[in-house]
Amino acid sequence: MKKFIITFIALVWVSFQLQAQSEWVAPQEAAAVKNPLIPNPENLQKGSKIFKNLCAGCHGKTGKGDVPAMQGLQPKPTDFTTQKFQNQSDGAIFWKLSEGRGMMASYKNMLSENERWAVVNYLRNLAPKSSSAPAPEKDNETHKTTHKKATKLVDAFPFSQLINGKTTHIIQPKGFGFSIQHRFGATKLDKSFITNFMGLDLAANIRFSFEIPVTRRLQFEIGRTRYGKFYDINAKYAVLQQTEDHKMPVSVTVLSDIAITTEKDLQYSETATFADGKAFEYTFKHRLYYDTQVLISRKFSRLFSAQIGAEFLWRNLTPYSTKPKEKSYVIAVPVSMRFKTGMRSAISLEIMPNTHPRTMPMSLAYEVASSGNHVFQITLTNSDRILSQNLFFKPTLKHKDGFMLGFNLSRYF
Description:
The structure is a single chain. Helix 3 packs across helix 6 (113-126) and helix 5 (90-99) packs across helix 6 (113-126). The chain is elongated, with a radius of gyration of 25 Å. Helices cover 22% and strands 29% of the residues. By secondary structure, it is of the alpha+beta class. The protein has two domains: 24-149, Cytochrome c-like domain (Cytochrome Bc1 Complex, Chain D, domain 2, Orthogonal Bundle); 177-412, monomeric porin ompg (Porin), CATH 2.40.160.40.
């Protein structure tokens, strides 16, 4: 295991070095796209405001990429005033701003097209007058025709996980994602809120996972969860993807997850039996839990997205002595919503009605810092379980019993 971890870290480091050293060139069809915005005072002001909020922290107020704290990055932040940068077409700059790479965030899910074009115009304004004109483009008519035929996809959610539930988002190839989910102990709005420091002093649950894209429609995820000592692996595939022209109004994604608990073998009395009366024996298959989902999402506007799903969960070992009697499966219909409150902030809500008699997971989250490449959420939930195979089989807290605080941190590389 130690050799595996060392090898994995080495591969990640090498991939970063290769990415840092390689030239970043926009695809020809993207570079040929024409800028639809005139660089008038209104658009330049809009671009300036976005630049100051999202770009100046790394690239500096003048766009020279000279922020001292960022000089250790590989590659260093781009100097927008150079001839090399300004010689790119507007379409190439727009594509890079939309897609991102490495530490450079992807802004296609944060900013509208007009906002990104406004930033492009503002970046042109940073250059010396003699360098502000983009490189000439050839065969414009051909490129225009190609551009018209291209179908633009819409992502309802910028991340593949909202709070506890998955989304229809698929991360793109040539990278990977890493997530940490943390849930603290139950607390109430009484003196325990202070004495237990909002539940942070109590036992906590944590899950971390790696997301690995295969194609633009398929990704895998491997995770480890503390409670239940679960290891899980899932595959997620985008069947349909929402388009900007409304010909496809929704995105549809399917997901299948298998989890195995590595807790010590359960101890039962020698007289323990299954529900059918046969002698009980704890075997490997009893460690397995399954989860299958169909997710349907839609981005209704630049600010609001929603999703509904159908989820079927199965466990191979079911306690039959509990009352009311539990079944081996749970059927759930999770509903998720996200509302942007600013360029770097949003409020998300999850409600997950299901067939378990004592379980109704509900979660609320506030994104305090997000971009196309990372997100940090403060969460408020009624369960300290995270993985679906555990979340839907464990009773959730009632209102009078309190709530759990926590956080989610996701980063795409």
